[in-house]
Amino acid sequence: VADGYEDQRSVELGRQDRIVCAVASAEGRQSRYLVLHQFLLLLVQPDLVSPGWGIVRTLAPVRAVETQIDRNHPQTLRLGIRLPKDAPSPGAASSYDPATCEEPFFRKLADEHRGSSFYMLTLNFMDTKRCHCADLHLRKRRQEVRAQLKKRAEEFVEGFCS
After folding, report:
1. How far is it, in rounded angstroms, from Cα 94 to Cα 103?
2. Strand (E) or helix (H) holding 31
3. DSSP secondary structure letter of residue 2
4. Nearest Cα to Cα of residue 79 among 92, 12, 11
């Protein structure tokens, strides 16, 4: 549970900023909203019965998400998600081995991924502008959250050193 959000639960979206996208799954192409949240990767399935509501389908801390726009398909955003070993799979994301990954951007050395599970998720957008907006949001939020965590860790250590 993060910020009151829980996987598979219905949430009121209200005026939250979001970008329409699609996720490929075993059931075919599924419509989703990428909710522009400060701390979370939040993909919500629109609720067709209750407008303004949606069902959380993918939930992960934004600090754990790396993005890359597909060069051959600029409307496609690939997400790499790194979570602790025992964390549940984030929604429609599929697990992958970073040592053998075909995407060089998401390939990691064995030493870099001990104690972690890796997941891959591909989002498709209606146009390149929406894809770039989603990429920018996720990159910026990842960078800012990680900077905040680094600062807090440094302050914590400084408290013991002074």
Report:
1. 14
2. strand 28-36
3. B
4. 92
Query: Taking the model in full, what pTM does it have?
Result: 0.84
CB atoms within 10 A of CB 2: 14
Q: How far apart are CA 62 and CA 37, in angstroms?
A: 9
3-state secondary structure labels for all residues of 68-123: EECCCCCCEEEEEEEEECCCCCCCCCEECCCCCCCCHHHCCCHHHHCCEEEEEEEE
Cα dihedral value 107, 109, 111, 114, nearest 10:
30
Calculate the alpha carbon distances from 150 to 20, 55, 65, 146, 153 in Å. 32, 32, 16, 6, 5
Neighbours of 35 (CB within 10 A): 19
Tens-digit pLDDT string for the chain (162 aa) = 466 788 888 888 988 899 999 998 777 889 999 999 999 999 999 988 888 899 999 999 999 999 999 999 999 999 999 998 888 888 888 887 777 666 665 555 555 667 788 899 999 999 999 999 999 999 999 999 888 888 888 888 888 786
